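A quick aside before the break. I want you to see a complete sequence-to-structure record at least once, exactly as it would be stored in a machine-readable document. Don't worry about memorizing anything.
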Amino acid sequence: MTVKAKTKPTQLEAAELQQARTFVGDAWNQFRKHKLAMVAIAVLAVIILGVLIGPLFWTLDPEYIDIVDAYQVASPEHPWGTDSLGRDTLARALQGGRVSLMIGISAMLVSITIGTVIGLASGYFRRLDNPLMRMTDIFIALPQLPLLLVLMMLFREPLKGAFGVEGGVFILMVSVIGGLQWMPTARLVRGEVLTVKSREFITAATAVGSQDGRILTSHILPNVMSPVIVAATFSVAAAIITESALSFLGLGFPPDFPTWGRLLFDGKDYLTITWTLVFWPGLLISLTVLCVNFIGDGLRDALDPRLRK
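That is the input. The structure line, written in tokens, reads:
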């Protein structure tokens, strides 16, 4: 039995291996080198699976009131303690996590869509560049938190009457948060479009008579998606923090429809009695935002062509 010695690949084989590499494969290899991003994916997966399938295993009713068990710190029946009405904190955190994550993802989709459309139009059409960028500067200059509070106060009751309490507040939060966070994405996309627009393949597409819409969707948009994906991850974290801040100020969902921010708002008055009412929702918010930010850092490094070999 003979053992065939390993030989170094020839120059032709090396060239074939180089051609066989794909963008996704290169990005994944670079992403795996970011240890914090890999840990963040694992932690975020645990949180998402917990809020999605956790209620199937932890079947306590999050709205069940038991005054006798109020203000518990931790017990076998209530591992995360109970609130002032004896409601299980773990069950309420699992229920509230669904709403918080859904608001973060939905608001991200709104902000990324608006920012991408405005960035594409501003970067490609010269006549629209100045008006759209000045509008973007105006939105950036507006004080975000006071404007959020005013919009929530103005449209809260009309939307409640039209879509119900939960539906109205959800639509309002997603619209307001997403509608006030698109500006960084628009500026980012505009810069990328200005760079891509000057390349040869765009000139060739224009020369053969391609329409502006086809050039934007088939040639420019795919080449600017990498920074948009990175911006989307940071938008999710920003939306979750904003929702938590609004709920903490009492402008979010009603008490019987908990989110992580609402749990913080309800638990702050009882912090001297039981710390678990604030600790667990605050920990979930912090871990989720940190994980999303670390994943965004990893994607930024993985999608940077200067760092991929």
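Two observations worth writing down. The CA atoms of residues 12 and 18 lie 10 Å apart. The chain has a mean pLDDT of 82. We'll return to this after the break.
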